[in-house]
Amino acid sequence: MTAFPVIVGLSSSIVFVVLFVKLLQRNRMLREEASALSGSPENGREAWSDEWFEDFSSFRYLPMRRLLSSEEEEFWMQSTVGSECRRAAFRAERRHLFRQYLALIAADFARLSQGVRLAVVHASEDRSADIEQLLRLEWSLRKLLWQAQFSLMFHWLGVKPVDATQLINALQGFEFSLREIRLGGAAA
């Protein structure tokens, strides 16, 4: 009878340690990627510009929806006669690509947020309702980015994959709303 609580306590401690180590590894890797990206001009971390916004399209993130899908994984396993070891490598590579997409989304989102702030400053009329909507969209997009990062940590455990559809839809909504506000400001 007394062995059961001890076993549960030990197994919980082991799970905690494994998750904590994975979290530290992930944070270290993200810091290294961020420092590697900060030196290159193509990293998407430049300031807002009208030219960038005209060329920007959130549709470029649509392939992200399939990166962690179980259907893609099963198709790959069947087509390559993969082993469980190869499945783990496949999943790890897909998580890595997903993290890169998240970093790009975060950088583009930062630039779009900069555009929102510029639209507020340069507005010739009161656009507080539009700005309030954009701020709500901005908050929901930030929340979805955090959720994606958090649930991606558990993907290696076999937990349900991250669904990027909501994140991409939120980014598209943010982009389209900003375009409407800018067009409305240009027409005025």
Give a written overview of the molecule.
The protein contains seven helices and no strands. The chain is mainly α and 188 residues long. The radius of gyration is 21 Å and the shape is elongated. The chain starts with a helix and ends with a helix.
Topology:
Elements: H1 3-37, H2 50-55, H3 64-67, H4 70-80, H5 84-122, H6 128-153, H7 165-187
Helix pairs in contact: 5-6, 5-7, 6-7
The main pleated sheet reads as: none
- Shape descriptor reads elongated
* Computed CA radius of gyration, to the nearest angstrom: 21 Å
Strand content: under 5%
Number of strand elements? 0
Order of helices and strands: HHHHHHH
Low-confidence stretches: 38-44
The CA-CA distance between the termini, in Å, is 77 Å
Keywords:
188 residues, mainly alpha, 2 domains, 7 helices
Short recap of the structure:
The chain has 188 residues and is an all-alpha fold. The chain has helices at residues 3-37, 50-55, 64-67, 70-80, 84-122, 128-153, 165-187.
